[in-house]
Amino acid sequence: MTAKKPTQRKTAEKAPIPAARKAVATNTDAAKAGTARGAKKAVAPASEAPVKTTKTGRSKKTPDAPALSPAPARSTATAAKPAGSPVIPPNTVVGTIIGHPEGYGFVKLDQGGDDLYMSEDSMRAVLHGDRVAVQATGFTRDGKATGEIVSVLQRANHRVVGKLRSKNGQWFVVASERRINQDILIPRTKLGKAALDQIVVAEITSQPTPYDEAQGEIVEVVGDEDSSEIELEIAIRKHNLPYIFSPATLAEAAAYGSEVTATDRKGRVDLRELALVTIDGETAKDFDDAVYAEKSGKGYRLVVAIADVSHYVKLKTALDTDARERTTSVYFPRRVIPMLPENLSNELCSLRPNVDRLCMVCDMQVTAAGHVSSYEFYAAVMNSKARMTYTEVAAQLPDLVKAKPKAGTIEASLKTLYTLYEAFRDARELRGALDFEGQEAVFTFNDDGSVASIKPAVRNDAHKLIEEMMLAANVCAGEYLAKAKQPLLYRVHDIPLPEKLAALREILGMRGLTLGGGERPEPQDYATLIDATRDRIDAPALQTLLLRSLPQAIYTPANAGHFGLAYEHYAHFTSPIRRYPDLLVHRGIKAVLAGKKYTGEDWERLGLVCSGNERRADIASREVTQYLKGKYLEAHIGEEFVGTISGVVAFGVFVTLDETFADGLIHATSLPRDYYQLGRDKSTIEGQRSGFTLSLGERVRVKIAAVNADTAKVDFEYVDRA
Fold first, then answer.
1. How much is the pTM?
2. In 3D, which of 24, 99, 16, 109 has the Cα closest to residue 65?
3. What rounded mean pLDDT belongs to the chain?
4. Angle between helical axes of 410-431 and 390-402 (0-180°, round to 10)
């Protein structure tokens, strides 16, 4: 496809601590060598003076998957404090501590390779996320590489959110981050107004040492553990999500007022008479995109208009500083933490109906076969003719196919958009793009904040229609900037890693399945397997296996294409209200249109920050969702539900419930009395005497036996096959 020059248009204006242990230096905290307690040890600096500790009796928790360390956030103050360049001891390697709820941990090495196992004893001087210098020491009996911490280079935790507890006169905070196994001791004089079992934020005044637990003081009382939305408040602080805009940012946003001015409209293409509409969910308020389509010769004209956020969020402003710190809006079941202040995100930038709004447009010519033959970008002013929902559009589409609406109307545009969607869908299948079925839940709440119901989200043809229009515009944006040699952050989804591919092929082989493509499969190979297994009972589990074999998509200035979508160039252009990379793409397009280059950015670092913050948002949202599912099931203990076996392990099977998509474990001890072990295909658990089996993908009826919403653990009892 080719980019066109703009045409002329009408414009408008725990456990006891041993008596002696090997020393660990903390050179970021300026620790110096010394002697104490008959053993050579590191002397903590004044801010980390040793304190007398007692065993606080932490309960054991289930493992949690490692996550990317979040980017710093000014507003919640849980980020690491700046530190000078640490001195790395000789003959050591550098890595990051990954804690485990059971007390042991690992060091994820910067240089790559296997993580180093750290015993519970070795972990006493560090917390999850700390940066350390280590030496390899050998191997455990089961072959894990082990290491020893030589020096703590940088502390990751200076404020910790958790529950305030007390035992034997000792007050302490149990961190909500389960990978922080150590308690934070709180002197009585540092409790402030906090009460037992409240959720609090503790500032660490003394980091842990080989001999002493961390010490802190209460700096914020978040609320009671059973209060409404407490899970949101915990997630915000636990994951360091910026949620307070600076006064300067709010002032800049307010200064723009509530209406598009004549000066704003000047020099822009006037699309106010075009039947552009927004199509979003029922509860949406930030309308990024509007669409319009019409017949054009033997093909079609597709107009995708996107909110022109870059007109308001300019470089070197407070608005940009806060947006760059967040890089994404964060969506929870009953709250949104926006990237931009609401008078921009929900008002002046949002493409609301019947008001003028500024936009950036991708205006495309599309063939009847669904190929974009040409396109152009330009700045415009628009006036949305309707705020439509996916539900109402999906209901109209069947009748519109047979109707003959008047050209230029909303109905005519919707009919053409549906025709385009079908063409894009066919082209998608031909190029082999992957199409995984999602499992998103929709929550409704009672007046007291408790979960009233959980239902599966419905993805209808209107959702898919808008998705295809946005994909087309995103591809054009990536290609346009690439041809102009304008630096940008591509949305890259790389090819499967060899080790992940080998593991996938082994599992598939056990089930009599093969993935084509040899050592370098193409998207079409994945798509073929997905289509071939769509009707199998274990199809959802197989799709999960395929998905996990693929790397996560990232933002990076180095274009490597998008494997899952089978695109050579792909960038995010369509959601600048809620994603900073899209805003950067808009700035790049404007620079190219002006015959200039958008420069001065550290694109590598920006890509890492945007990717990391996206992961942080996803993890925080997922944790809140899991908590809410747990609270819902907690109210239904003893009741029966139907679900599908989604995982098989030696000690039982995991089941995903219908509708709620909540996961839980049927432990082998709750199955008919027998000795159970994994079958040869590793997808079946088998009773050795009775021959009783449960297999991946089987439908089962279970009873809710126990729930711990805080740890997202749900135990099921097996009832029968469903």
1. 0.85
2. 99
3. 88
4. 90
